[in-house]
Write the structure tokens for this entry.
Amino acid sequence: MSNHPITLTVNKSPYSLSVAAHHTLLDVLRDDLGLTGTNEGCRMGDCGACTVHLNQLRVPSCLVLAVNADGADVQTIEGLAGETTGEHHPLQEAFINRGALQCGFCTPGMIMSAAAILDEIPERPLSEAAIREALAGNLCRCTGYAKIIEAILEVANG
Ligand code: FES
Ligand code: FES
């Protein structure tokens, strides 16, 4: 099977890659670029563990063929962490301080979705109901969501 050349900007760094037609953006991020903060869960678009920002919009990277992301700007959890001070993003701090994770498997995708939600929903104060609805595509098996919602509310509303 022949590969296809693509270019990507990932966390502000440019890459030229050769990808198989069936490889997903998730495959490229984890296997070609070693960005294993983006987790692989269902590979069906159902769990949100693989959420990244593609051209400033959140997407499940398991559903994006790498060839279709040619030329795109991608941000992963690794890029979010260094975006402001080189330290944790405020959402990461809030998740830590609130104990909003247990096994941590869902956490990178949860935080990437949360970061997008802060931009997607301009109203402040941001309501718990709005966060719950916007976060419906991100599944957590451990926490019961309460601490996750509290962490996002803290960052959104101060
Ligand atoms: S691994 Fe992509 S949504 Fe579950
Ligand atoms: S912390 Fe374990 S799945 Fe969310």
